[in-house]
Amino acid sequence: MVMVNGEQETGVVGETILDFLKKREAPIENIVVEQNGKIIHRADFDTTKISENDKLELISFVGGG
């Protein structure tokens, strides 16, 4: 089981962060990913894998005024 922003997510163990974000159609250039309390650098999205019992927090930035 993987928790994403406090909700259970299934079928993502073994995926890279990049693949996971693409599947969700997340704005990769405007997102911060925290995995188990550690911020993952965007350059590492394609090599960092999601493991069983991971806790991910996805934070998107939007402009406005």
Give structural notes.
It is a single chain. By secondary structure, the chain is mostly beta strands. The chain has a single domain (2-60), classed as Roll (Ubiquitin-like (UB roll)), CATH 3.10.20. 11% of the residues lie in helices and 31% in strands. It contains 1 helix and 5 strands; from the N terminus they run E-E-H-E-E-E. It has one helix spanning 17-23, and strands spanning 2-4, 7-9, 31-35, 38-40, 55-60. A 5-stranded mixed sheet has the order 2-1-5-3-4, with no helix packed on it. The longest helix has 7 residues, at 17-23. The chain is globular. 8% of the residues are buried. The model has no long low-confidence stretch (mean pLDDT 94).
Topology:
Elements: E1 2-4, E2 7-9, H1 17-23, E3 31-35, E4 38-40, E5 55-60
Task: Give a short synopsis of this structure.
With about 60 residues, the chain is mainly beta. It is about 10% helix and about 30% strand. The chain has 1 helix and 5 strands, in the order ββαβββ.
